[in-house]
Design a protein that fits this description.
The chain has a three-stranded antiparallel beta sheet, covered by helices on one side. By secondary structure, it is mainly α. α2 (11-23) packs across α6, α5 runs antiparallel to α6 and α10 packs antiparallel against α11. It has 13 helices and three strands. A hairpin with a 4-residue loop joins β2 and β3 (164-166). The protein has two domains: 2-117, no CATH class; 122-260, no CATH class.
Amino acid sequence: MIYAGLAVAFLPALGALARSWSAAEYQTHGFVVPFIAGWIAWATRGRWGRLPRSADARGALLVALGLAAYAFGLLAGSATAEGLALVGAVAGAVWWREGGGRLRALAFPIGFLLFMVPIPLDWVSPLLVRLLLVVSSAAAALLPLLGVPVARNGNVLVFQDGASLVVAEACSGLTAILTLLPIAVLIAHLSPLRPMRRAALVALALPIAMGANLLRVVATALAARIWDPSTVTRDPWHSLGGLAIYAVACLVLLATERALRPSRVAA
């Protein structure tokens, strides 16, 4: 009953979260996160389902705190607060009805839900500006080594013939970071790596994402020398290029996980 009640109560929060996920490219992964968390919980049901159910009233307090945070989020119009309240209420409900043992067993899928919580815009804006400057500067330094001299004006790459290429928000690397990070966490969780190597894999997601994004910008600039910049920066080519680079980043992440596994010494 408590689960059904929370599901009904948080329907407006799910709507607010969906609107936030749709509003920015770097948050679209939020649509997938609940399904991944649900799949993990279902796949591990044999393990946590064998644990004894022992209701713990302390979970009711966490549910109450979650509902209070939810009310604040509704009044403030904050999808972030509503998302955090939802995750807290889910954890509290499991603790309350199932007990601490099952809560600990389900800690990963419940914690994974935090990746669906939108980041406040006030936090994103300054980070976005910094990332744009970093990737623009790196591209401006790398392109001359590939035979394409450019000058940089902020986040604009200017070629010798006067043509220019704007490094837009989609190429800042923020989307790559925020979408690759949950994948890295998921791979680390499923991997047989030791805790320190799992942490290293998650940490390496940042340079992998930034490197893949830099590759996207450089490849776009090189393509702009063959075709005009307006062609390579409009869909479907721009979106397809982004998907291809993201696939490369995922493959590099998987290869990194394999490389971090201890080598077996032949007898």
